[in-house]
Amino acid sequence: MSALSPLPRLWLAPMAGYSDTAMRALCHRMGAEASVSEMISAKAVVYRDKKTVPLGRITPPEGPVLLQLFGKEPSVMAEAAALLAGGYCGSVPAGLDINMGCPVPKIAGNGEGSALLRDPELCYRIVAAVRAALPKELPLSVKLRLGWTREELTVLRVAEAVTAAGASFLFVHGRTRAEMYAGKADWETIAAVAAAVPVPVIGNGDVGDAATALRRLSESGCHGLMIGRGAVGNPFLFREIAAALRGECAPPPTREERIETALAHLRAAIADKGEGIAVRESRKQIAAYTRGMTGAAAIRGAVNAATTYAEVAALLSPLTEAP
Ligand SMILES: Cc1cc2nc3c(=O)[nH]c(=O)nc-3n(C[C@H](O)[C@H](O)[C@H](O)COP(=O)(O)O)c2cc1C
Fold first, then answer.
1. Domain presence at residue 289
2. Looking at the structure, do residues 239 and 259 belong to the same domain, yes or no?
3. Do 133 and 51 reside in the same domain of the chain?
4. Is residue 236 part of a domain?
5. Does the pLDDT value for residue 286 go beyond 60?
6. pTM score > 0.85 for this model?
7. What's the sign of the alpha-carbon dihedral 163, 169, 175, 180?
8. Which of 29, 234, 322, 323 could cross-link to 295 by cystine, CB 3.0-4.6 Å?
């Protein structure tokens, strides 16, 4: 039986620069049933660029993880997918995901990510080629935005094309490429996709609390939810939503728990990437963990200048005692 059977309902979103091994393991411990890796360039995998290997490394505490590929050439995507599925990065993923949503100019300007939404026929060919290159039982998902612009809302056509090509399930973020992250996610269009395709849809966009999670699930007809920014500095959100799905109520994190979790997160990142890189990369996460806490603003500059775990711990620890 696949690690994704039954298909998880609560997912941590792929977030380049955030959803690494340390964050995925922490969110899984809190209640995220599964996650998707940061995006990995298919071309880089095929060219055996060693820098991509850490992006695809998965450790047991993370639970099921899909590795996400971006690219636009069906044959390159297929070759990269076969390599990743075969354990090229040191571990075999629970499945593969194809990025058809990234809006950043470096990717979309190159015809990749969200630019694919303008060409449903190419989307079909990419998914068909990747599907054919993977073991039959390995799940293959696609992560979509709604289209290039509001005037070019192609998600239904693309969703139908990629499911016809063999996608096992879909993630749908309720924004167009032009919207980037502005405005509110359009859950009505997500619901329309969920109603139209024969595979499960996981809805994504702006879920930041348990009440919203329950409402989105019941109103959209989605099989599950994917959460990104809401979990940055707040992995407790998964505990709250998982409890709500069971009809229970989880306690909000205490000040001590927030600081302890921020430090545990940093220790896990250090174990994975080394102290120098992990401390530098942790700044934005620590800012999120401590947002709104008394004394947090006053230490931000010092945290941003810190280069060791000991310095960060010494700065954060007093926050647990602030009134
Ligand atoms: C910093 C950042 C990095 C992201 N990186 C990726 C990525 O690598 N692949 C992807 O499919 N989506 C990526 N996304 C989009 C998220 O997966 C998600 O679709 C989006 O943030 C909306 O969900 P949210 O409102 O829960 O954050 C990224 C988003 C952010 C904010």
1. yes
2. no
3. yes
4. yes
5. yes
6. yes
7. negative
8. 322
3 state SS of 129? helix
Same domain membership, residue 130 and residue 96: yes
Residue 177 CA: distances (Å) to CA of 149, 154, 264, 317 = 6, 11, 35, 41
In a domain, 3, yes or no: no
Q: What is the Cα–Cα distance from 114 to 123, expressed in whole angstroms?
A: 11
Catalytic residues: 102
Specify the ligand 1 atom closest to the Cα of 18: 1
Residues 270 and 212 in one domain: no
> How would you class 48 by CB atoms within 10 Å of its CB: exposed for 0-12, middle for 13-18, buried for 19 or more?
exposed
The rounded distance, in Å, linking the Cα atoms of 91 and 57 is: 6
The token duo for 44 is 């880089």
Domain-ending residue, one of 245, 263, 292: 245
From the CA of 113, give the closest atom in ligand 1.
11
Rounded to an integer, what distance in angstroms lies between the CA atom of residue 23 and that of residue 231?
Answer: 9
Question: Are 62 and 195 found together in one domain?
Answer: yes
pLDDT at 322 over 70: no
Q: What is the 3-state secondary structure (H, E, C) of 198-246?
A: CCCEEEECCCCCHHHHHHHHHHHCCCEEEECHHHCCCCHHHHHHHHHHC
Give the integer Cα–Cα distance in Å for 287 and 300.
7
Pocket test for ligand 1, best of 68, 97, 229, 238 (most atoms within 8 A of CB): 229
Nearest CA-CA partner of 63 in 98, 97, 23: 23
Note the pLDDT of residue 197.
Answer: 98
Span 114-150, pLDDT tens digits: 999 999 999 999 999 999 999 999 999 999 999 999 9
Task: Name the β-bridge partners of 206.
Answer: none
What is the tally of structural domains in the chain? 2
CB 64 within 8 A of CB 1: no
Instruction: Output the CA 317–ligand 1 centroid distance in Å.
Output: 30
Domain residue limits at 312:
255-321
